[in-house]
Write a structure and sequence with these properties.
34% of the residues lie in helices and 25% in strands. By secondary structure, it is α/β, with parallel strands linked by helices. Residues 41-394 form the FAD dependent oxidoreductase domain.
């Protein structure tokens, strides 16, 4: 079966997608392409949140680090996502308690809290201009979901000591959002949202300043590990020899390592950005300028940009190619929530490839003595992928505590491995899509 290269299936070499984020990216000096032979302590494949954060934290500890990015830093999901910096793991604490026990579930909660903290601290420490705003509103699109949401709020407050979340009833939800689509939910003011590409660019600049060597337009074709050394080769003849390797490729891993690929699957997601709406309409739609994530299985997630556009994400595909008209693909999801936007112009529409796992928890592993990987953030990666970089830096330096907590989570192989993961997932997601509609 022909498998397109995900690095080029929907995008041009070395070029950011025509997104709102790319159009409003902070100015930064580009990075050179890898040429010839290079040596370093640690080589990192992938210039997104995981790879850049790994490089920054390793360089700050005195390691000689090289990052290899196939296109541009932040080019993948790190620079295309909804920008939500959420609390907790991708799975709720009730599920995690059943999955790993109460003690480890608590450790996973604490790690997730650290993931939000590291985003905020990097923004402050490196003066990253990325439009940080507090607050994520969870909105239930079915009335029967609301009691369970409110019970979960109580659990986080009473059992986990988390006092930055509160319940929202139907009337308050309608006051907060200019929509009749929802029945209640919760508001988490410890969470927040950012311009993700500018955050990635800020981490890259900080890593460069700390001494990391970052190379763009350097497509890795293979690597091998022998006698305690790793050799990485690029498409244009570059070679890096290192003591250790970090894989931070997420949805764009492709065929680079089947040991990861059989547990981590790429899926596509899409976002549109309207024209600027003005202060009055923007406030009518999202009164308090928080981000919103709803309860649909194929989730709607949206927020206002710094210049008061609606950034609305919705819809997923599981083939390799994006829809020909992304704006038309996503707009019906937005209009279901906000029919009053039917005559508003949509200025941008773009897609990206993220990665999911069967259990929707990140896949951390030491796949060889000197090879580490973290990926499969399942739509919860802005904060967790950034923290993953610090956790990987710890692990490379010999401190394995947090890495082991994450790596001890059992991550199932997709049924049929790589060959059948797409058709199996498509069948499952079709069922959930029908359930959402009903």
């Amino acid at each position: 079966m022909f498998t397109p290269n995900l690095l080029t299936a929907n995008d041009r070499d070395g070029t950011y997608p025509a997104s709102y984020y790319a159009a409003t990216a902070n100015a930064t000096d580009p990075f050179a392409k890898l040429e010839g032979d290079q040596t370093c302590d640690i080589v990192v494949i992938g210039g997104g949140f995981t790879g850049l954060s790994s490089a920054l934290h390793l360089a700050e500890r005195g390691f000689d680090v090289i990052v290899l990015e196939a296109h541009r830093v932040g080019w993948g999901a790190s620079g295309r996502n909804g920008g939500q910096v959420g609390s907790g793991q991708r799975r709720e604490q009730d599920d995690l308690e059943k999955m790993v026990g109460r003690d480890d579930a608590r450790k996973l909660w604490d790690i997730a809290e650290q993931s939000k903290d590291i985003v905020k601290s990097l923004i402050t420490k490196h003066d990253i201009k990325c439009d940080w705003k507090p607050g994520i509103l969870h909105a239930d699109h079915r009335a029967r979901f609301v009691p369970e949401t409110h019970e979960y709020v109580e659990k986080l407050q009473s059992e986990y000591g988390y006092d930055q979340i509160r319940a929202v009833d139907r009337d308050e939800m309608h006051a907060m959002l200019g929509s009749e689509f929802y029945h209640g939910g919760s508001l988490d003011m410890g969470a927040g949202h950012i311009h993700p590409l500018n955050f990635a660019l800020g981490i890259a600049d900080a890593a460069r300043a700390a001494g990391a060597r970052i190379f763009e337009n350097s497509v890795v074709t293979s690597y091998e590990s022998q006698a305690g050394k790793v050799t990485v080769k690029t498409r244009d003849g570059g070679v890096v020899s290192a003591n250790k390797l970090i894989l931070g490729c997420n949805g764009y891993l492709d065929a680079l390592d089947d040991r990861v690929a059989k547990r981590v699957m790429p899926i596509n997601n899409f976002i549109i950005a309207t024209e600027p709406l003005g202060d009055d309409l923007a406030r009518e739609l999202i009164r308090d300028d928080v981000a919103v994530a709803d309860s649909k299985f194929v989730i709607n997630y949206y927020r206002l940009s710094a210049d008061k556009r609606m950034l609305f994400g919705g819809g997923e595909t599981y083939g390799y190619t994006f829809p020909k008209d992304i704006k038309s693909f996503v707009a019906p999801h937005m209009l279901e929530v906000y029919p009053q936007l039917k005559d508003v112009k949509i200025d941008y529409g773009w897609g990206g490839t993220l990665a999911i796992t069967m259990n929707r928890m990140p896949f951390f592993r030491r796949i060889e003595d000197n090879i580490f990987t973290a990926s499969g953030y399942s739509g919860h990666g802005v904060a967790m992928a950034t923290l993953a970089g610090q956790i990987m830096a710890d692990a490379v330096g010999g401190t394995m505590e947090r890495f082991d907590v994450m790596a001890n989570i059992k991550t199932p192989v997709f049924p049929g491995g790589k060959a059948l993961r797409f058709p199996m997932l498509v069948a499952a997601m079709l069922w959930y899509s029908i359930r959402d509609k009903l």
